[in-house]
Amino acid sequence: MTDTHRRPAGVAKAVVPAAGLGTRFLPATKATPKEMLPIVDKPAIQYVVEEAVAAGLQDVLMITGRSKRSIEDHFDRAYELEEALRAKNDTQRLHSVRESSELAQVHYVRQGEPRGLGHAVLCAASHVGDEPFAVLLGDDLIGQREALLRRMIEVRDTYGGSVVALMEVEPEQVSLYGCAAIEATDEDDVVVVTDLVEKPPADQAPSRWAIIGRYICDPAVFDVLRETGPGRGGEIQLTDALRELARRKPEDGGPVHGVLFRGQRYDTGNKADYLRTVVEFACERPDLAADFLPWLREFVAAHDTARADD
Fold first, then answer.
1. φ, ψ dihedrals at 306, nearest 5°
2. What is the pLDDT of residue 8?
3. 257 close to 155: Cβ distance less than 8 angstroms
4. What domains can you pick out in the chain, each with its CATH number?
5. Bridge partners of residue 37, in order along the sequence
6. How far is CA 139 from CA 43, 73, 117, 174, 255, in A?
7. Which one of 45, 125, 253, 285 has the minimum C-beta count within 10 Å?
8. Exposure string (b/e) for 69-98, b if CB count within 10 Å is 16 or more?
9. Is the separation of the CB atoms in 64 and 98 below 8 Å?
10. What are the residues facing 190 on neighbouring strands?
């Protein structure tokens, strides 16, 4: 349980790393940040910010890089566009345009060079200060009916230290993630993380429980990251810093707990999963599903028939 001499402070800020080059989506991301690729009619990063706000986090820091100006523009006011929509009395689109600029207090800091997720998080040190904070990766979208981040904050409030979101993956996918060695607690969905390994071979993974893109970090992670050298891929890995914190006592920034997530997660980091995400979100939309679903059924049936005839 929480050390009575180190009562955990509440989580109030979210950090969203958004400095990646998006090479898997070239040429689309040559001039457009991957975070701005649309999921139906909203950029992926807006869903991430909405998730943070739904969990009670109104202060959002974006870690950006070169050619990411459109992210800032999206969360800013667009006065000329708003005026044009107002003149047309198009209140629905006017609301959708203003919504992103009114979501949260959004701040920005540049990551000068892409040196890994750990380095991106370290760029947030001045803004975050000596407070726990959430990290949300834009490649992972969590189902809108889920309350994963809020649950992680509750676990941090109870146990202190850091918290990671864990999802069980197939053995052949283990090498794509950071994986955790875990021990049970008295809560069904909460575990103690005893070790972490970044992208291990399947036969060397401590478990099939993989870290997905949600973290609650104790501020002690910053000092650890400053001393963390390049790890897998030659980058500074957040997983390596959390591994160190998992070995520590509460008064030194530990421990690390995991929340076992069994809900809906969308991985938009590769083309096939991105397309699945767009289709699923479209099917969930009342304004689209009535027309889209019948067309989709007909398309799939025609596609299957054509393949059977080959």
1. -65, -40
2. 52
3. yes
4. 13-269 (3.90.550.10), 270-310 (no CATH)
5. none
6. 12, 20, 13, 17, 26
7. 285
8. eebeebbeeeeeeeeebeeeeeeeebeebe
9. no
10. 259
